[in-house]
Specification:
mainly alpha; 11 helices
Length: about 240
């Protein structure tokens, strides 16, 4: 109920701001992606890093959000342009700065933690993931291809290789007649690579079965769930 009410409240505030303060919406929207990126260490902790504690993830998230704020336009506005580094220091995105300090704090907090009472619970959770992953029927002959394709797409799509697209499909300053597809070369380049990105997601999800549970995985997950439910006294055989 709290989650639903919070979502409704945030949606209402967004509508009000979009109606009466559109400039503020543009400033805040620039924070959406870099701040969302700060959840990445916590996601890694859930899936692959059992040594990452809850407090470390929370502290890292808090510091990462502050770092994003101080390297974005809103941070400059709040401090009256007092910050000497400006927006995106050294032309590095604010999300990367936040993730850098986020990771430092996470690792530092783990090292500084003397006791970890929740480690056994997390190990049980990760053990379940490992059993399910080992039972997957991923095509072994294609094991290295997804990594190569992801790296290529990341470099030429949103990465530095996109610079090639400035003039790949015609002189950017040559006008309509010089553009092969009738739009600026970079536009065509981005559209093509984003379409390829959709195809890459399909390949990873379906062909590499990263979003498909095999019969062995389903059987193992069902058996593990039944055993846990039986121990709790709630399994009725259905």
């Amino acid at each position: 109920m709290i989650s639903r009410f919070s979502a409704l409240l945030v949606g209402f505030i967004a509508l009000v701001m979009a109606s009466f303060t559109p400039n503020a919406v543009l400033v805040l929207s620039a924070l959406a992606i870099p701040m969302s990126l700060q959840l990445l260490p916590a996601l890694f902790g859930v899936l692959w890093l059992p040594w990452l504690t809850r407090r470390a993830a929370i502290f890292g998230l808090f510091v990462g959000l502050i770092a994003v704020l101080l390297t974005e336009q809103l941070g400059q506005m709040i401090t009256g342009n007092y910050l000497p580094w400006g927006r995106w220091p050294w032309s590095i995105h604010s999300g990367v700065w936040g993730l850098f300090f986020n990771t430092l704090v996470c690792v530092g907090a783990v090292i500084a933690t003397s006791t970890d009472r929740d480690r056994s619970h997390r190990d049980t959770f990760h053990s379940f993931f490992e059993q399910i992953t080992e039972a997957a029927d991923h095509p072994s002959r294609l094991k290295s291809i997804p990594w190569i394709l992801v790296l290529i797409w990341t470099f030429f799509g949103p990465g530095p290789g996109a610079v090639i697209g400035n003039s790949f499909f015609g002189d950017p300053g040559g006008g309509y007649d010089a553009w092969i597809f009738g739009v600026p070369s970079l536009w065509a380049w981005q559209v093509i690579w984003w379409v390829l990105g959709v195809g890459l997601i399909w390949f990873l999800a379906v062909k590499m079965q990263l979003s498909v549970l095999s019969a062995r995985q389903l059987q193992m997950a069902t058996s593990i769930n039944k055993s846990h439910t039986h121990l709790d006294g709630g399994y009725d055989g259905r």
